């Protein structure tokens, strides 16, 4: 495949990512393995993460730099190092390389943690609020991070529904069994196997929720699995804002990104923005725009340190709200339809339209 691990020349790569060393490799099943990463002291703050977030890896392949996102199965509250779990995908260039070639001691190019598949901190420790988790296949990865963290930090009751193809496909089987034994009054794990019960159905979802209604729901797995669960929960009358779905897609190859970028820049250049107002950390800044530049490029040119990470539209680190004016979003693999309706956009992929645009970054 022409892929290779990186050497230890510097902790920061030329592409703005960081070099982290693999300190442990765990074979979870026949087609899934976990990589534990050593984060040096000087990068600890940069790689501080929330349960449910992911890391993005940049992997050289046949002259291109491919980017892939893998959720952390570790908990920042009870695991010393971040751990990502990668399931082999048929024809997957990066997932197969990660499963077959990466060894302890290898250095990988990694972007800082990102993602919004996380508990609302204001409700995270409410002991009366149930937490219902749905994991399908390797979608268990961010779900188990949330599960372990909630067990550690609160007294909330938790129910995990974990669907797999068959018994041999169950990732973290022993760890989940141990967690259930350690927390018998709070944690219930329900395993569903396609080979025995068939695929999950709407009525089944509603039965599995049972008395745990009115809490928070986190769903990650294959597309049809997530659609079934989300549809069933909404039919039950559960609040949409309490239903969290994590959808992953593989970013396009770099040449495709460049072509998309050129088209978006040309389209936006026809409508120059005269004034960009940016609210950051409680202060408002006036930013000049160059025709065709993204919101992120304009902010950086003005010396503003706005949050960002992948700069390819899939991590969500640069999310901001458009308070006034219009913007054109080129690529979006992270914002939901509801978030778009609420005015959220991605600074790295969005360009201002019209004479005046006003933004607000969270925080």
UniProtKB/TrEMBL annotation:
It is an enzyme of class 1 (oxidoreductase). InterPro entries: 2Fe-2S_ferredoxin-like_sf, 2Fe-2S_ferredoxin-type, 2Fe2S_fd_BS, Beta-grasp_dom_sf, Cbr1-like_FAD-bd_dom, FAD-bd_FR_type, Flavoprot_Pyr_Nucl_cyt_Rdtase, FNR_nucleotide-bd. CDD domains: fer2 (cd00207), PA_degradation_oxidoreductase_like (cd06214). Its cofactor is [2Fe-2S] cluster; FAD. Signal peptide: none annotated. It comes from the Bacteria. Keywords: 2Fe-2S, FAD, Flavoprotein, Iron, Iron-sulfur, Metal-binding, Oxidoreductase. Residues 15-120 form the FAD-binding FR-type domain. The keyword Cell division does not apply. GO terms for molecular function: 2 iron, 2 sulfur cluster binding; flavin adenine dinucleotide binding; metal ion binding; oxidoreductase activity. Residues 274-363 form the 2Fe-2S ferredoxin-type domain. Its EC number is 1.17.1.-. PANTHER family: 1,2-PHENYLACETYL-COA EPOXIDASE, SUBUNIT E, NADH OXIDOREDUCTASE HCR. This is 3-ketosteroid-9-alpha-hydroxylase reductase subunit. It comes from Pseudomonas wadenswilerensis. The gene is hmp.
